[in-house]
């Protein structure tokens, strides 16, 4: 599919035109981009800014956004979508260079992708300028940092399953490597669950996923260093243990903006980190928020 253009099938809904670009078509700082891009056009999105989607660890555009109905929901709202697959995920290559997996490198590539897709800085009275950003899990960490460092581009941001402490920071890399090599089971429950979820997807490259973990450990998440200044919606399942530090992000955002007016929270009853993304209430709230 990479590098081709056409109308998608049932996975994204009738009438949605998808353009997929191979990551190597873009270069950042002289090297190939490691993020594959899928652009979904609603056909009636000429008067609205695009939406950037960033999926979670061990997921992909297909799993996080297409199969869960997000592309259809955004299409119905008249929004063009720019979705990326993180390095080693989905349609993206699995680079050998560890630097390709770092959050700072990914943010640089996101910025280049938006420029490639003709996203312009925000301008008063121009509803086509800028971009709205939606992230889930690890994608929320990346979206928080991107929004915090690119206020001239980001209009609104929606974070799903967010945390002020990246769960990958405490990931037991040595134990995971040992188990995948036939060694003892992983003792740390968070690490064990992340590995289990990753192995549920047959196409996942476990080497590249562990490379991402290793790279992320070199750039710990410090949300207080780049707090988004635009309206923000934080969403989590009621039973999402990974999002237990969401209140810290709320406090940071409210303190930075000086009021609660543009900082909102949505807790989804009975939902977990794994299934919150499928919630209809989540999609409805996110669409209403970014269209507000």
Walk me through the topology.
Blueprint: E1 5-7, E2 17-21, E3 27-28, E4 31-32, E5 36-41, E6 51-54, H1 61-66, H2 70-76, E7 81-85, H3 103-116, E8 131-136, H4 138-149, E9 154-160, H5 173-180, H6 189-199, H7 206-217, E10 232-237, H8 246-257, E11 263-268, H9 280-290
Parallel strand pairs: 6-7, 6-8, 8-9, 9-10, 10-11
Antiparallel strand pairs: 1-2, 2-5, 3-4, 5-7
**Count of DSSP H/I helices:** 9
* N-to-C CA distance: 34 Å
User: How many domains in all?
Assistant: 1
Instruction: Give the ordered list of helices and strands.
Output: EEEEEEHHEHEHEHHHEHEH
DSSP strand (E) fraction?
15-25%
Strand order of the largest sheet: 1-2-5-7-6-8-9-10-11
Describe the largest sheet.
9 strands, mixed
Find the structural class using helix and strand composition. Answer: alpha/beta
CATH superfamily: Alpha/Beta hydrolase fold, catalytic domain
CATH topology value: Rossmann fold
């Amino acid at each position: 599919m990479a590098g081709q253009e056409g109308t998608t099938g049932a996975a994204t809904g009738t009438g949605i035109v998808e353009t997929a670009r191979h990551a190597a078509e873009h270069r950042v700082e002289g090297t190939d981009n490691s993020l594959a891009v899928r652009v979904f056009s609603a056909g009636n999105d000429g008067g609205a800014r695009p939406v950037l989607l960033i999926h979670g660890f061990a997921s992909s555009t297909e799993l996080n956004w297409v199969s869960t109905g997000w592309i259809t929901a955004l299409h119905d709202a008249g929004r063009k979508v720019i979705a990326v697959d993180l390095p080693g995920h989905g349609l993206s290559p699995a680079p050998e260079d560890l630097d390709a997996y770092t959050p700072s490198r990914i943010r640089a590539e996101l910025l280049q992708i938006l420029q490639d897709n003709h996203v312009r800085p925000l301008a008063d009275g121009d509803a086509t300028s800028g971009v709205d950003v939606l992230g889930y899990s690890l994608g929320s960490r990346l979206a928080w940092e991107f929004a915090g460092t690119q206020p001239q581009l980001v209009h609104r941001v929606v974070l799903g399953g967010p945390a002020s402490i990246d769960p990958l920071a405490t990931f037991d890399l040595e134990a995971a490597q040992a188990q995948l090599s036939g060694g003892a089971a992983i003792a740390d429950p968070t690490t064990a669950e992340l590995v289990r979820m990753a192995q549920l997807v047959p196409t996942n490259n476990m080497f590249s996923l562990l490379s991402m973990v290793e790279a992320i450990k070199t750039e710990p998440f410090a949300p207080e260093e780049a707090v988004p200044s635009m309206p923000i919606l934080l969403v989590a399942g009621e039973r999402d243990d990974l999002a237990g530090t969401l209140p810290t992000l709320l406090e940071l955002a409210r303190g930075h903006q000086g009021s609660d007016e543009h900082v909102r929270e949505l807790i989804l009853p009975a939902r977990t980190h794994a299934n919150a993304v499928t919630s209809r209430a989540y999609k409805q709230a996110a669409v209403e928020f970014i269209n507000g």
